[in-house]
Structure formats: C-alpha cells, structure tokens
Amino acid sequence: MPSVLRTFALSLAFAFIGTMAGVFVPTSLFLPLSILELVMLFAAFFFRRKKAISYSFLYIFTFISGITLYPIVAHYMATTGANTVIMAFATTTVVFTGIAIYASKSKRNFSFLGGFLLAALLALVAISIFNIFWPLSTTGMLAYSFIGVMVFSGYVLFDFSRMKHYGVSAEDVPLMALSLYLDFINLFISILRIFGILQSKD
Fold this sequence. Notes:
This protein is mainly alpha-helical and 202 residues long.
C-alpha cells in the first residue's frame, strides 16, 4: 500500500503541473486532449488483463488529465473566486483521507460494493450525456453532484478495502494508483460543483 500511495501522490503532482500548464494550452486543443484522455483511460482498464500499465503511462495520463481539468478550475475561479476552488480541494482531501483511514483500519471487507458502484457510475455517465442535450436545472445539477460525491466516496472505500484485503502486486501499483487518482479527481469535481452552485446562490 505505501508504494501505491507514493505513486498516487506523484500522480496528483503531475496533474497539478498539467493544470498549471493548461493556461498556455490553446482552447482548440482541449477537446482533442479530452478524447485522448478517454482513449487512454479505456486502454488502461479494458486491456489491463493482458498487460499492466507502466509508470510513464500513468504520469502522462495524469498530466493530460490536469490540462483538461484547467477549464473547469478556471471557470469556478472566474465565477465564484479562488476560495471556492481551495475550499473544494481541502474538503476533498479531508473526505478522501478520512475514508481511506477508515477503510484501512476497518475489519470489514467492502469489495462487495463493486457492482453497486459500477451501476451508479454508469447512471452518472448517462445523466452527464443527457445533460449535454437537455441541461439539468440548478437543483438537478446540485442533486447530481451530491450523488457524485457519494459514488466516488464509495469508490475510495472500495479501493482501499480491496488493497487491504487482497494486496497489490508490484506490477499493478500504477493501475491501483490510477484508480485512486480517478477517485480523488472525480470527488473533487463533484465537491467543486456543489460549492460553485451554493456560492452562486449567495
């Protein structure tokens, strides 16, 4: 587990650098980079049984992910201020750490949550696609974000429980770190969206 956490922390660092670099990326490149990010994500998880992903793949992915995260962060910084982003990141860190500690100390095995979480994640993806064509109301988006917080908090619980009870082989460290990275980033985006909506109502 320590090697996974070190790799996860380094992944966040690469994502942070990517977000900072996003300032210099032309707007026209964000969509192609987002598509590349999805392709890499698909490759990482759907072909993992054939070959483990490398550390280089992980860090390149998280760097690109940081770049594509920039427009979201920039939007909330422009509309509700930097404090909203800082509070969202701090809250995400506290929630993530708290759940991680609980899962690591608990004797219960939460791996049974996998099926429920996958179904909930697919529902979130479906709603996000629906939102592109028929935008949700502010209340609907707030509810969607709260559900996102619960789902990705559940994934943090699931992933740490899985590591504790089944362990992680050396070759699977980058993939496990990628899972934790996705948990953290998606939890952050959901919390940021909630804070952004609440701040805009003030």
